Amino acid sequence: MDGLGVLVLIVGAFYSTVAFLLRKQIAADDPYNSYRKNMGKAILLGLELLVAADIIRTVAVSPTIENVLTLGLVVLIRTFLSISLQVELEGRWPWQRGAPRPAETAGR
Fold first, then answer.
1. For residue range 8-47, what is the model confidence (pLDDT) as tens digits?
2. Which of 2, 97, 96 is nearest to 46 (CA)?
3. DSSP letter at 63?
4. Domain boundary assignment for the chain
């Protein structure tokens, strides 16, 4: 799972960069925002896989109190990073999915 998480990060970064370079030449929409969005999605998916790997490792290998507390801290930090990235990408909290984005209501 760790390897898969890292692979998702690498492939996502590669895909985002290639798409950015191609869009920049085509100049269709805002290439920078598309690049940030693609990169953010890859990071979010990679973080989810790395959290899953940590959970599996802690439960399967050696579920000691120290390992469980370490896992809790790692999951807490990665969850904070995931939420921060999601707010940065979407402009709203994850539990506000149905609400319009701030930029959408500003033009009204």
1. 999 999 998 888 888 765 555 677 778 888 888 898 889 8
2. 2
3. -
4. 2-103
